[in-house]
Here is the input.
Amino acid sequence: MSAPLSPLPRARVRRRNPWPPVLGVAALAALVGAIAFGNLNQSLEYFVTPTEYQQQRAELQGRPIRIGGLVRNAKYDPQTLNLRFVVSDGGASFPVQYTGAVSDLFKENQGVVVRGQFQGETFHASELVVKHSEEYNVPKTQAELKDMLKTAP
Amino acid sequence: MLNLITFDGGAAAPLGQLSLLGALLFCLAGLGLALLGGVTRDARAVEAARRATWAVFALVSLGTLVLLFALLRDDMSVRYVAEHSMRASPTWIKVTGLWGALEGSILLWAWLLAGFTFILSLTLRRDALRPWALGTMFVSLLFFVGVCATVASPFTPLAAIPADGRGPNPALQNHWMMAVHPVLLYLGFVGLSVPFAYAVAALVTGRLSDHWVVVTRRWTLVAWTFLTAAIVAGGWWSYETLGWGGYWAWDPVENASFIPWLLTTAFLHSIQIQERRGLMRSWNVWLIVLAYASTVLGTFLNRSGIVQSVHAFAGGPVGPVFLGFLALLLVLGTLLAAWRAPRLRDDAEPPAALSREGAFLAGNWLFVVFAVMVLVGTLFPTLVEAVQGRRDASVGPAFYNAFAIPLGLGLLLLMGVGPLLPWRRAEGQGLWRALWPLLAAGLGAAAVAFLLGIRHPGVLATVGLGAYNLLGLGLLTARAAKQAGGLGATLRAQPRRYGAYLAHIGLVVLALGLAGSGTYRRDAQVTLNLGQPVQVLAERLELTAIRQETRPDGRSVVAHVRIDGEPFRARMNTYIQGGDTPFPAPAVRYRFTGDTYLVVTKTDPKGQWASVRLIESPLVSWLWWGTVLICLGASLTLVNPARPVRAAAPRLAPATD
Here is the structure.
C-alpha cells in the first residue's frame, strides 16, 4: 500500500513552544535587574574632587565615597600611625583623618585618593591610595592630577 | 635562523615585522583556501589551508623568537624593548618582557593561537567540519596576527636609539609568578578558540550531530585547566606581591578572566548532557560562542582602559580594534546560531527536574547567572558614567559578595546531588534514600563547626556542604568499587569519572579556603621600634634590624622581624625605573591551618623604626592545594579508560562517563 502523495512536504522543523526560553530569559533579566539595581545603587561608590563634593554635599554626606586631590599640610606620627592632612583641588579643601601605616610616597603636593566618608567637615578615610601615573611618577601639576585621577583605581 | 644572534642590532625590527607580515599573508591565503574548500568541497584546497597553518605557525614563531632575542640582547633599536626592558634586569625578567606589555602580550597570544592551530591541523579529521573549523581558526589568527603586524606591532623601530631602556613595569618583576600567570591565562583563552571553531563549523555545515561536542571535550578541558590554574596563579601573585594579604578583589580584569571560566565550566557540564542524552544542543553552541567572546571582551576591557584596573594598560588604538572583533564574533555567532537554530533539535523532551541532567541544567543556569552578574558589576561603572555623566563610580566587593556567596553555595549543593541522581529521572523516594546520609553528614559537620565556635552562616554552610559533597563522592566510589570488584578496577575503568570527582574534591577544599580566609582574616598595623617587642594579634613582634640591600636593578629595604621567635624578612623593593615607588614583598609563613603575613609599609631612614602590617588568615593555602587537586582531576579525565581484555573490539565512540 502506497501512501497518497501529500500536497505539501512535511515540515522539517519541529515547532517548539517558544515560551519556556522567553520566560527563562525574562526571569533571568528580571533577577539580574533586581539584584543589580537594588543593590548596586548602595554599593556604588562615587569618586569626587573636593569641589565636586562641595557642590553635592547633601547627596554625598555620610555615604562611602572616594575623594581625590592634592595633599597639603600633612602631619604623620609613625608611633601612633595617625595621619592628618588636607585634600585640595585648588577650589576647595577638606581635612582628612586616617589611621594606619603610610607609604613613603605620601608627600606634600602629591595626588592622593582616599576612600571613606565625611563626618561633618572631616573626611574619615578607611583607605589611602597614593596615585601615580603609569610611569610611576607622581603628578605635579593640577592638570596632570586631573588627568591621573580619572583613572583612579 | 641561528644567524639571527649575530645580526647587528638594526636587523631585528625589520626581520620581526617581515615575519609577521608574512604570517598575515598566509592567514589570508589560508582563510581563502579554507572557505573555497568548504564551499566547493575540494580536498586539495582544504589540504592547502591546513598547510598554511604550518607556515603561519613557523612565521609567528620566528617573530616571537626575534622579539625574545631582541629582549635578551638589549636591542634598544626596537621600540618595544627600549620601552619595556633594560640591561640591568636579570635574564628571566627579560624573558617575561615578552608578555610584560601590550604589544608583546598580543604577540604571545598570536603565537599560542598559531601553535594551537598547528596542533589542530594535525588532529583534525577528514570530515565536513574540517574546512570550516580551519577557516574559523584563520579568522581568529587573522585578527591577532593582524593586530600584531599593524596597530600593536612590537617591532616598530626607534629612530633615536637610547643607551638603556625604560625597563619593565616594576609591579611585574616583583615575583616569579609573573613568568607563569600570563602564559597560563593565554593558553586558557586561546584553547577556547578551538571548541568555538568546531561549533561554528557544525553550525555552518549543519552537521549538528554530537560529533563536534565529542571532539572538543578534550580541547575544552585542557583550556579550562589552564584557565583555572591561571586565575589562581594570578591570585597568588596578588597575594605575594601587592601587600594587602588578599588574593581576589573583584578587579575588572580578574572578572574578565572569571567570566569565561564560569561559562566554560557550564559548557563542560552541559556537553555531557548532549553526549549522553542528545539534549541542550543549541544551549551548548551558545555557551561556547559566549565563552570565546568573553575572552575577547576580557582582553578588550584589559587593553582599552575603559574600565579602571590595576591591569589596564594605556590602550591606544587596540581597544576599538578588539571591540570591533568582539562585535563581529557576537553578531556572526548570533546570526549563525539563529539561522541554524531550527535544526538544533534535541532528541527528547527537556530534562526532568529530578534527574542528573536536571541538576546539570540547574547548575548551568547558576553559572550563567553568575557570569551575567559579574559582567553587570564590571560594566556598571562604565554605564553610570555614560548615562549619568558622573565621572567615576565603582562597585565594591560587597556587591559581588552579595550574589557570589549564595550562588557558590547553590553550586556546591547541586554538585553533591548531581552525581547521585540517575540519568533521565529519579523517583522522589529513591532520591531521598540517596540524599539523607549526605544531608545528615552536612548538618553534622555544620553542628560540629558550630560547637567549635564558628558562627558565620556562610562558613557553616560551606563546611556543611563540604562534608555533604565528600560523603556523596565517597559513597559513590565505594558503591562502584564494590560492583567492579575493587577500588583499583573502578579507577582504571572510569578515569573520567574519578577525575571529575577529584576536581570536585579540589573545589570543596578551595571553597573551604575561601570561606576561612575571607571570614576570619585578622589585620593589624603597628610601628615597631628597634628592640622593643610588641604584642599584636596574639603574636609577639620584635624588630631586630633594618638593612639596605642594593641590586643591579634597584634596592631593597629589609625589615628583620621576629614573630614569636621566628625570623621574618619583609622587604620593600624599589626599582631604578620605578623612582621612589616602593613595592612590598611580604614575608609569608605558609601553614596548613593558616598563614602569617607581614608587610613593611614604611621605615625610618635612620633604621630606628618600621611600620608593619600583620595579617593572619586561616586556610589560605587550601586555595592553592584545592587548585592542584582540580587540575590533577581535570588531567585524569583526559586519560583513556583501561579496557577489559575480553572486550577487545576497537573503540569507536569515546568514553561516555
Summary: DSSP finds four helices and six strands in chain A. Chain A touches chain B at residues 12-14, 20, 24, 28, 31-32, 35-36, 39-40, 43-48, 52, 64, 66, 78-81, 100-105, 132, 134-137, 150-153 (CB under 8 Å). Confidence is low (pLDDT under 50) at residues 8-12, 133-140 of chain A. The two ends of chain A are 78 Å apart (CA to CA).
